[in-house]
């Protein structure tokens, strides 16, 4: 039987980012910069309708979506292309060491009494918002890092020198039992979102510039299967994202935490 199914056309974001890459890339090049308004010129030429926020094209490939396969195939062995900010309305394609952060399968899941207000759980919009709310109401930053932490602002949009405009999902400040003070940028990962060096690096650089007297501890939270939440403390080393610590939590009614569970937790660090 003949298959008359036509191949799916690439979406408009893919067409635009591929064209920008093709217009600039020279084989063997490790990085190059481009302007945001190039997307508008390409869209006008190809009669593509742009989103109201043109920057969403680049945000998508920086944090949510994979770059087109033809772009990925040009990367050197062991490297991958990323897009990072390069100033106001400017971006940079750059090859960095290939790194993927995924929750470990061999870690124990710690049960935490669920303090999420039912009305919040019933009305949260989207994975990211639901995850940020669960982390906030259950004080998972405090539990994970062992400090008293307080939400300062969510969806912080600001400008960072040499990077341009960025957005941090949520930012906390905290204090330890010894009086050390911290600034804690938090990424929320749900659905198909991926951990990447770009967001972690921008969060750290932002905190260094905006809160120079506080110790920066970058955290990422990610939904897992079975309603579990993976928490990572991350850093960037040699353009690679590295995990400092990782814990898995599950929010449950107190009645589901047994004496056996508590005995296991008593023997953990």
Keywords:
269 residues, alpha/beta, 2 domains, eight-stranded mixed beta sheet, 11 strands
Explained architecture:
This protein is α/β, with parallel strands linked by helices and 269 residues long. It contains 9 helices and 11 strands. The chain has 2 domains: 12-97; 109-266. 31% of the residues lie in helices and 33% in strands. Strand 2 and strand 3 form a beta hairpin. The longest helix has 14 residues, at 197-210. The mean pLDDT is 88.
The ordered H/E elements are HEHHHEEEHHHEEEHEEEEH
Distance between the termini: 62 Å
The count of DSSP E runs of length 2 or more, i.e. the number of strands, is: 11
Annotation field: number of helices: 9
Q: In a few lines, what is going on in this structure?
A:
With 269 residues, this protein is of the alpha/beta class.
Helix and strand arrangement:
Blueprint: H1 12-24, E1 31-35, H2 37-46, H3 55-64, H4 69-72, E2 79-85, E3 90-97, E4 109-113, H5 118-123, H6 126-137, H7 140-145, E5 148-160, E6 164-175, E7 181-189, H8 197-210, E8 215-216, E9 218-223, E10 228-237, E11 240-252, H9 259-266
Parallel strand pairs: 4-11, 7-8, 7-9
Antiparallel strand pairs: 1-3, 2-3, 5-6, 6-7, 9-10, 10-11
Helix pairs in contact: 1-2
């Amino acid at each position: 039987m003949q298959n008359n199914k036509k191949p799916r056309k690439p979406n408009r974001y893919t067409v635009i980012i591929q064209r920008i890459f093709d217009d600039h890339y020279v084989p063997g090049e490790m990085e190059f910069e481009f302007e945001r308004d190039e997307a508008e010129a390409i869209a006008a030429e190809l009669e593509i309708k742009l989103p109201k926020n043109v920057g969403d094209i680049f945000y998508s490939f920086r944090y949510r979506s994979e770059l087109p396969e033809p772009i990925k195939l040009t990367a050197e062995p062991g490297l991958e292309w990323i897009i990072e900010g390069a100033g106001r309305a400017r971006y940079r394609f750059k090859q960095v060491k290939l790194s993927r952060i995924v929750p470990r399968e061999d870690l124990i899941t710690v049960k935490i009494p669920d303090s999420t207000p039912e009305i919040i759980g019933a009305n949260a919009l989207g994975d990211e918002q639901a995850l940020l709310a669960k982390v906030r109401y259950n004080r998972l930053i405090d539990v994970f890092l062992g400090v008293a932490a307080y939400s300062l602002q969510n969806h912080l949009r600001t400008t960072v020198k040499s990077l341009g405009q960025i957005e941090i999902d949520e930012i906390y400040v905290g204090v330890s039992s010894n009086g050390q003070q911290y600034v804690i940028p938090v990424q929320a990962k749900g659905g198909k979102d991926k951990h990447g060096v770009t967001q972690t690096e921008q969060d750290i650089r932002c905190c260094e510039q905006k809160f120079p007297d506080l110790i920066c501890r970058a955290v990422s939270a990610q939904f897992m299967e079975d309603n579990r939440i993976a928490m990572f403390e991350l850093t960037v080393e040699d353009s690679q994202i590295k995990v400092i610590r990782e814990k898995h939590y599950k929010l449950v009614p107190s009645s589901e935490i047994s004496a056996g569970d508590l005995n296991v937790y008593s023997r953990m660090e």
